[in-house]
TrEMBL record:
This is Thymidylate kinase. The lineage of its organism: Bacteria, Bacillati, Actinomycetota, Actinomycetes, Micromonosporales. The keyword Kinase applies. It comes from Micromonospora reichwaldensis. InterPro entries: P-loop_NTPase (IPR027417), Thymidylate_kin-like_dom (IPR039430), Thymidylate_kinase (IPR018094). The keyword Transferase applies. Phosphorylation of dTMP to form dTDP in both de novo and salvage pathways of dTTP synthesis. NCBIfam families: DTMP_kinase. Keywords: ATP-binding, Kinase, Nucleotide biosynthesis, Nucleotide-binding, Transferase.
């Protein structure tokens, strides 16, 4: 039996990294084997994308992040899934559909170059007040041109995430949109445990959290 592939997406500063870490801890405490990861990856390729947004634009950046995604899938995600783990990925396809579109890339091209990227079992999209998310991202440190721009840029980014969540649903992805609002990080993680547990119990074939050996031995 393979594991489950869950991605958490949304605008910079909305709380993806914080929530993903809390969710990973909560699932691990329940006995699940969790593989937390993120895109762009920590590889040379991923770091070039993360810190290279002033040098690379449009089609180039779209291809760079897609290449990093394919390498991530091959080197980390698929092996972890094959071992029966829950892969929790901070940023995935929705980011490309939003940021590359903001960068002037035709959505059809973004879909096309991501055609062979695995479909997650669950795509979580976090939304929140755009101004607050921008402020948090700025306070943490700006390392991407997508972090710049004031509240108006934040509003456009947030609106596109909502549109992209609908686009992904129409394309057959399982999408869960969660509005962070005034919730604490713990409250957000707790709220997400609901849909995640539903996913884990659906089609679990009687798997239990600690049944990793059983899970990894099934195919
Ligand atoms: N629900 C929340 N309420 C208040 N602060 C938060 C919340 N979620 C995250 N933060 C803070 O906001 C900042 C950005 O969070 P982070 O998880 O790095 O966002 P992202 O990964 O979406 O860019 C961090 O300093 C984090 O501690
Ligand atoms: C995954 C991904 C990242 N990127 C680039 C631009 C983003 O600003 C940057 C993400 O860097 P990251 O450090 O993850 O930003 P944040 O802390 O805001 O979550 O990588 C894309 O352009 N498209 C993508 O699909």
């Amino acid at each position: 039996m393979t594991g489950r592939f869950i991605v958490v997406d949304g605008p910079s500063g909305v709380g993806k990294t914080t929530t993903t870490a809390l969710l990973a801890d909560a699932l691990a405490a329940e006995g699940w084997q969790v593989y937390p990861t993120k895109e762009p990856t920590r590889t040379k390729l991923g770091e070039t994308a993360r810190y290279g947004t002033d040098d690379y634009h449009g089609l180039t950046l779209a291809c760079l992040v897609a290449a990093d995604r394919y390498h991530h899938l091959e080197a980390e995600v698929r092996p972890a899934l094959a071992a029966g783990m829950i892969v929790l990925c901070d940023r995935y396809l929705a980011t490309s559909l939003v940021l590359q579109r903001l960068d002037g890339v035709d959505p059809a091209f973004i879909w096309d170059i991501n055609r062979f990227a695995d479909r997650p079992d669950l795509t979580v999209i976090l939304t929140g007040d755009p101004a607050r998310s921008r402020e948090r991202a700025a306070a943490r440190g700006i390392h991407s041109r997508f972090h710049r721009g004031g509240p108006e840029a934040g509003r456009r980014e947030m609106e596109l995430y909502v549109r992209v969540s609908e686009e992904l649903s129409r394309a057959g992805f399982a999408v869960h949109v969660h509005h962070v609002g005034e919730q604490s990080p713990d409250a957000v993680a707790t709220a997400l445990l609901g849909p995640v547990r539903a996913l884990l119990s659906a089609g679990s074939d009687g798997q239990t959290p600690t049944g990793s050996a059983a899970r990894s031995s099934e195919s």
